[in-house]
Amino acid sequence: MRFEDAWALADTVGGWLTEAQGRLLWDSARHLTPGGRIVEIGSHQGRSTVVLGLAAASVGARVTAIDPFVEGAMFGGQSTRAKFEANIAAAGLTGVVDLLPMKSQDALTTWSGDIDLLYIDGKHDYWTVVDDLGWTEHLSLGALTLIHDSFCSVGVTSALLHHVLVRGRLRYLRRETTMAVFDRAAPTGADRKRLMAELPWFSRNVTIKAARRLHATPVLKAMKHDSPYDPY
């Protein structure tokens, strides 16, 4: 299967993953070998899960999708879970994707085995992201961690700065808009500077989000943000 075919399926699923970000997930998963394991934290309706699952199926890997499907207007609860399961079935991935309908912190307590690709797009507050980053303890040698909404969420960015600048647990490699790529290695001074160089862009994104909520149209025009959505 080509990425274009996979994206045609994924793009029918609700969510905020862009095509370019989907390609980054696809390419990262396609580098795995048979028996590889992908862990996704935060699946929602399965937009990213379909991309990861189809890539995994093409190389003989598997995906573990973790989402508690919290009730409420923002997350949708069990109705979102039903959509997720229907979308996975429609993509032919029932035998490739394993769902753990629970918080990632709870799933982590019983997890064993290596992770060959970690994708994090869960709740965006600082403490939840820190908990989600605990999964990096299980990364296999050379495995990547991809994190959505980096540099546009105060909670996500704060947790990443702590892990890179303070704890030195992750090394920042690159990004596709707000999807950032890390590996588990001690960052050098140059690695830290590369991460810090993203902070002006992060400040711009946070300003745009605040302006949208305040309906500050002149600010949005000045920043040339004509999208009805937050930057992601």
From TrEMBL:
GO molecular function: methyltransferase activity
Enzyme class per UniProt: transferase
Keywords: Methyltransferase, Transferase
EC code(s) of this entry: 2.1.1.-
GO biological process: one example: methylation
Keyword Methyltransferase in annotation: yes
Highest taxon of source: Bacteria
InterPro entries with a match to the protein in the record: SAM-dependent_MTases_sf
SUPFAM superfamilies in the record: S-adenosyl-L-methionine-dependent methyltransferases
Protein name as annotated: Class I SAM-dependent methyltransferase
The species this protein was found in: Longivirga aurantiaca
